[in-house]
Input
Amino acid sequence: MSASAPASVKDASTPTPPLRRGAPARIRKLAAQGPLFTAAVLVLVLLVLLAVCAPLLAPYEPDAIDLKNSLAGTGPDHWLGTDQSGRDILSRMLYGARTGLLGPLAVVGVSTVLGIAMGVVAAWRGGWVDSLLSRSMDLLFAFPAMLLAILCVAVFGAGLTAPVIAMMIAYTPYVGRLVRSIARQEQTRPYIESYRVQGWSGWSICTRHLIPNITPTVLAQSAINFGYALMELAGLSYLGFGVQAPTADWGVMVSEGQNPLLKDVMLPALAPATAIVIAVVAFGIVGEGLADRVSKRER
Amino acid sequence: MSTSTEPTPVALEVRGLCRTFGDHKAVDDVGFTLPPGGSLGIVGESGSGKTTTARMLVGLETPDAGSITVDGHERAHRPRTRAERLARAREIQMVFQDPYLSLDPRITVHDSIDEVLRLHAPEADRPGRAARLAELLDQVGLGTREAGALPRRLSGGQRQRVAIARALAASPRVLILDEAVAALDVSIQAQILDLLARIRREQGIGYLFVSHDLAVVRHITDDVVVLRNGRIVESGRTADVLSAPQHPYTRLLIDSVPGVGWDPERIAENRRALAAPEA
Amino acid sequence: MFDKTTAGDTEARPATSGTDTAGRDVPLLDIAGLTLRLPDHAAARPILDGVDLRVDRGETVGLVGESGSGKSVACRTVLGLLPKGARAEGTVRVEGTDVLAMGAAGLRDVRRNKVAMVFQDPRASVNPMRRVGDFLTEGLRVRGVPKEQALARAQELLTEVGIRDPHGALRRFPHQFSGGMLQRVVIAAALSGDPALLLADEPTTALDVTTQAEVVGILRRLQHRHGTGMLFVTHDLELAAAICDRIYVMYAGRIVESQPVADLFARPRHPYTAALLASTPRLEADAAAPQPIPGRPVSLAEAPPGCAFAARCAFAIERCRSEAPALVSDGPAAVACLRADEGILQ
Output
């Protein structure tokens, strides 16, 4: 206990849990979030795998027309039946998953990156930079995403690109606003201030400490946004503004499945619609779960 | 102590420091000096301006008026260049109050000290840095086990040791301790006070000890400044001020510390008497 | 083991539920053998381990410990507030009735009419959107006091806690008060139901030193006037000494020592109490520098087999590390240390 013996005042080396965790521990921790979260993650993983492996898994070419087999029911040849043109629904679903996920991926990826950049710059610089960025985000907010998308289609023509660009623009202010508010809070925390006192530049503090620490919160929101983007893009395709008809896409498939619906054939429309619902719900659950984990970590 | 004109060496000199928030004068004409290797307590309650003063010293707030010099270098304005910024950081470092919020939760103890070394001594090679890092960890009583850990695996006392080691890594002339032991349990607080006293003895680093706790200030400082509503009400040798306070507010602060013969009713009366003429 | 060989001062405790408030010698608060366990994966040791504690009418009892000692948890169980997923053993009797065995209606009655609590952070315990008047009268209104009378009583209470212009204060919102003033409002609200027992969980920790003195003064004055028993939970031994009659010292979920205040300071019997006293910085001119206690408190993830303090104790012998000491009474004092009788602290 004497003052001159630092070793004696050293905190006792008590058994603390292992410092580095392996992959199994991570998976276990993920599962601790609850069975619903785990199931949603599994659904999304499966969805991505199916989309990636579509060419290997699909029993038919997605666009192979077989008019003799129009509206065939489920059976060993066509697990989910065929549509009006006799195309295999399962194959189209698998290929549809690719466009269905690729569009939102681009939207969410770009809007997250742009939003983080705008939000952090606004929060960190403050003053007129903040006002300028905040006002321009407000301006973007004023445009409904759908309207912007239709406008873009009018300019660039129908297809996946135009609505995706429109929605990148429409989603950025959502992320930007969220990032700005959490970054403003985060930058007053002593750990960020201590980096300023140490003499780091604003750039390195933001890129190495501020952004990595707010990213989990932003990613949780992005997962939820992913579901929304998927739904809105499918909606645009359904309306005919997005992916165009022959290409396999869930939105397009729902639209094409309307006619068979009138003849009491459900699957051509029901299958892609169900897929959309499952994907959107799964992204929502994952997003909520991630947000939960973030708030649990904060003490 | 602040008015002497003899050529006594001065590490930190603060003169006429002012800061206003809206129409509230948070800091009003505050000045003091700190000799090299000295320890000065800045004592006050919430709203006294002690934290704002500390934040101006390290550059987290910009003063409206006044000067802050370390070894004769003025630092009241914002740094312009990277070199200036780094030079500033080597003048004054700070340890914050809350050990749970002052470390990046994603960065291990080792890395959070190592990055300071890389920033301030880029010429040092890897083994040189490793040696300095081991020395710093040893100084604050942390082992290799803690070095590899993330902050959340550490107790409050251990985190505060990390914060001290990290501040020392920049080899500052002056270390500001802003309520640095206030959030710790007494038994751990005594460990950290012990550690701080030893570091000052061995390294001759100057302390500015910002605190509300007179008993702690008595054991860690040589001189003390008592702040109230942004102004200095009393200053002098810590032992003198605490044993023979001149200002009624200082007396009130001393009486308020719980202990034998503590009389809350009388304290309340004195407090009202002191507040009355201003209201 | 420990909770069955409990201390002697609980022997006077009525055997079972048969005794009601009729018996005068029924203590106001009697906690006996209280053990709280979290689910196995959450903690290696019980958060509370065989806690025995009593508060008599009008008495002020201090419960002192460092963070993680379980002092706040123990305090909350009196209101029937247990940590999530915790299993409780033992009894927590308020005026002879076990709170742990109560249903929702019984708990409501205890919280409304018998026991009130003041928390550390006044801002967190007051609804920021409601006027202070509503906050103060809601408890009275629930008990069926007419509105006019409740408002008059609220004003009276505010005057008692030293708030100038109590009439105007009723119409103000919490954010218009300073921390110290708001804590007075909280105290006024706590006393509005004339509770027999007041639980104060670090009520002054968030306040400035000079404000602390005032708030403690008010607490003490009101307590004397109303004859309220008080359990004062704090980490500050000096503060506890200044206002309590008796003090319990907790460490790692156990009571390690209890004594009347003067004796505790003059002759601490447990090495932890002695070390805690020595580590507290003192203002007096001739006081020695604070002596650190090596190591750190036992976390919930650790379950040392013997005395929880052994790893940090200067007097620990081999036996201390393997055998958990029971709390042994000796007159008004009780201590849980295997070497308490050896005079090690003299």
User: Anything to note?
Assistant: Strands of chain B lie at 12-21, 24-34, 39-43, 65-70, 73-74, 92-95, 174-178, 206-211, 223-228, 231-237.
